[in-house]
Amino acid sequence: MTGPSTDELLVVGKITGCYGVKGWVKIHSYTDPGENFLSFGKWMLKRRGAVEPIVFDDGRTQGKGLVAHIAGVDDRDLAESYRGLEVAVQADSLPDLAEGDYYWSQLQGLQVWCRDKSPGASAERVLLGSVDYLIETGANDVLVVKPSEGSVDDRERLIPYLPRDVVTAVDLAGAVIEVDWFLED
To answer: Which domain-ending residue is among 41, 63, 93?
Structure first.
């Protein structure tokens, strides 16, 4: 499976605060594992609706998180001005994945379909909604499926992302995820 091939930016982390007094910042990484954040090299900063390049000239794991030094930023006050800003990379710079593996961003927006297996139902495909975002729970990831135009009802659903057990097919080209799920009363 190849990575995204568009020019879109994907947020890979967020600057959460300062670390020390010499321009270092704390980073909450959205990558798995977290230290993968440091390997990208061509980061972009999202600030006030604009995008600008940012260079981290040093970085490391620190406790359960990451810290990095912003090139040209050598005092705490200036580093503080970066707090809360998102850091992104070009989607097509992400590494290719193995067949059957997907980036979360590839799953967001896909329609989620299942077969109605309730008694007396005709086992037709039913649209549950679209993937709004995913949650990492530790045991497994969870698809947050929100109702969309044409969905069977107006319910939000939390569906475990368990390939082969619950998620039976992912068709990126068709923008569809098939799940073995049930319709609640």
So the answer is: 93
Cα–Cα dist 93/78, whole Å: 29
Please tell me whether residues 117 and 165 are part of one structural domain. Answer: yes
Is 42 in the same domain as 77? yes
**Spatial contact of 44 and 85, defined as CB atoms under 8 Å apart:** no
State how far the alpha carbon of 91 is from the alpha carbons of 1, 31, 155, 165, in Å: 14, 13, 31, 29
> With 0-12 CB in 10 A as exposed, 13-18 as middle and 19+ as buried, what is 66?
buried
Mark whether 119 and 68 lie in a shared domain.
Answer: no
Question: Is 128 found in the same domain as 86?
Answer: no
Q: Is 170 helix (H, G, I), strand (E, B) or coil?
A: strand
pLDDT tens column, 22-42: 999 999 998 878 888 888 878
H or E element: which one contains 14?
strand 9-19
Its pTM stands at: 0.67
Ramachandran category for residue 122: left, alpha or beta (phi over 0 → left; psi -120 to 50 → alpha): alpha
User: Measuring CA to CA, which residue among 115, 114, 113, 158 is closest to residue 140?
Assistant: 158
